[in-house]
Design goal:
289 residues, mainly alpha, 2 domains, 12 helices, 75% helix, globular, transmembrane helix, transmembrane, membrane
């Protein structure tokens, strides 16, 4: 297993990163938010409770070895052999991740203040691109967790004729970017500006886009790519047609939509406030004159 400090720091880092878009959109008290660090750390360590519990040790240890434990700060992934043998690298990597996560979370306060107070209207295309990039990053991580839980990295690597966890994980990055572009264009097309800044509306729409991506990509696209890339009699059989892959893309789309709305909304919110203020000022001047 990975060192306890690694699990703690990775769990704390992931929770900080997860809350960062919310802190960017809404005015969260960052002094009280420091509690996210111990909460996230305990969350990442929770599967190791079998080490200290006086009861159900065998059952909890069996649960610890399940791939579902990736839901607790990537615990299962961190306990893989490839990471366990790199003790020093895992510890210092977790420390670096924690420092970066704290810095990013803390900077959201300044970024939000600048977005709200900034003069002028942000460029819509640039704002959409930034929101898409950030949301795609979150969605890709969520998709990676879903694939890891299903032990599906070797299956993903089969798209390029390989059978490797590392290749499958690396291949998820361009796949996640492609899905993000699809979801970003979908949100821009389907939702108007008001609903595009509402996390619930965007999340629901993103989930539907994820389902559409599963139909177009997994049901239709993947078999076509395999038939083109390989001879028809040598094309590998990739078992993507299952509920797990659909669930993974729905999770991706839902998280993508929520993060997209949170990031997009903070800049639109500042622009809207300035517009209301300007209209109020013009009305006051007209009344005075």
């Amino acid at each position: 297993m990975a060192p306890a400090i690694t699990h703690f720091l990775v769990g704390a880092s992931l929770l900080l990163v997860l809350v960062t878009p919310i802190a960017l959109r809404y005015d969260i008290d960052r002094e009280n938010a420091i509690w996210l660090i111990p909460i996230g750390g305990v969350w990442g360590l929770l599967p190791d409770v079998h080490h200290i519990t006086p009861v159900f040790e065998t059952q909890l240890y069996a649960l610890h070895n399940a791939a579902w434990m990736d839901l607790f700060g990537l615990h299962y992934t961190l306990d893989r052999q490839a990471i366990r043998v790199r003790y020093v690298e895992s510890v210092f990597g977790a420390i670096g991740l924690f420092i970066v996560s704290v810095a990013v979370f803390w900077q959201t306060g300044r970024l939000r203040a600048r977005a709200v107070a900034s003069d002028g209207t942000p460029d819509r295309r640039l704002l959409s691109l930034v929101a898409t990039a950030v949301a795609a990053g979150y969605g890709t991580v969520a998709l990676g967790i879903a694939v890891s839980i299903q032990n599906g990295f070797p299956t993903v690597s089969a798209l390029v004729g390989r059978d490797s966890v590392l290749v499958g994980g690396a291949l998820l990055i361009p796949i996640g970017i492609g899905i993000g572009l699809f979801c970003g264009l979908g949100l821009e097309t389907v939702l108007n500006l008001e609903h595009r800044t509402r996390p619930l509306s965007a999340a629901l729409t993103g989930g539907l886009l994820g389902s559409a991506g599963w139909v177009g990509g997994v049901v239709v696209g993947v078999p076509m790519v395999l038939q083109i890339s390989f001879a028809s009699d040598a094309a590998p059989s990739v078992p993507f047609l299952h509920w797990g892959s659909l669930g993974g893309l729905i999770v991706y789309g839902t998280l993508f939509g929520a993060v997209y709305a949170l990031v997009y909304g903070v800049f639109h919110e500042g622009s809207a406030k300035r517009s209301v203020s300007a209209r109020g000022e013009r009305t006051r001047v007209q009344k005075d004159s």
